[in-house]
Write the structure tokens for this entry.
Amino acid sequence: MLAEFPGKVRLVYKDYPLPFHAGAEPAARAARCAGEHSRFWEYHDLLFTSQPAFSRGDLLTYAARLGLPEEAFAACLDGGRFRDAVQADLQEGRAAGVSGTPTFFVNGKKLVGAQPLRAFRQALQDALNETDGKRP
């Protein structure tokens, strides 16, 4: 959708580690640690293809697979550097009415669950039409 609507759409990703999945919160922090090395999305994608293998060892293995510096990544993960940020995203999601994943918002309109591409395309087009209608 970013390519289809260039310069008109912005993607904002928020963490929402489900409390019943013990590995979700450390995995979210690990992705942010990877982001310190400009590898957030690659790490994110590895997490989704590897779930639910989110033990500390697994998270370190994924970092090594991406060539991330082992000591720096482990220190970030073990030090809990992003714990507060992940929790802030979780609280923000709860306040917005998120109860599960995936949940998407397009200009405030909530889309819950895995949606077909046409649902996103329609939501984006609706939002753009609404925005265009408000211009003088």
